[in-house]
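This part of the workshop introduces the protein records we will be handling. To make this concrete, we reproduce a full record directly below.
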Amino acid sequence: YNCGGLTVRAPWGAVGHGALYHSQSPEAFFAHCPGLKVVIPRGPTQAKGLLLSCIRDQNPCIFFEPKILYRIAAEEVPVNDYTLPLSQAEVLREGTDVTMIGWGTVVHVLLEVAQMAHEQLGVSCEVIDLQTIIPYDSATIEKSVKKTGKAMVVHEAPLTQGFGAELAARLQEECFLHLEAPIQRVTGWDTPFAYIYEPFYLPDKWRCFDTVKKLVDYM
């Protein structure tokens, strides 16, 4: 867009004890603001590279930092200067049967689910970290879904009007003739984020695993 460089860092997502005031995932809200770039890293290495890219970008960026990473992040981060490209998704695990798309800390859940599907179902799952919410990398996810024929989008935000709806609509438009099952979304619920029920609110590995089975068993 080239409309002025400004990067705003903000905490994002569930932390384990944030309840309804400190657990929101508002990426869809900011994705509606023309000119903004919205970025969410999955871990420390991505956080450094993507944050430096945002700072150097000639456009306003919202850099959402998963709060849970503040406490549990344990990773060797390169000390040298480096950047990671914005608007480029990363394929973390290649597969042939199901495409799983996520961003932020939920990506780690998807990697675990992909391994479970391989071991228990003999299903090969492709895991994609979107990284940039807007403008997002449609080419990478479309290429994957055209290969697998099945797709699921996972995010912590509520189902209704969540950003997964945008991805599902785009994939339906661009990959319709390649789809072998309806696109699935595994998300938070359309309710306040209850403190004591947080484990039931989040899209955990069991909900995602059940969705993989649903996609594989379709028809």
Q: What stands out?
A: Strands lie at 6-12, 37-39, 60-66, 90-93, 98-102, 125-129, 132-134, 151-158, 184-188. The mean pLDDT is 93. The longest strand covers residues 151-158.
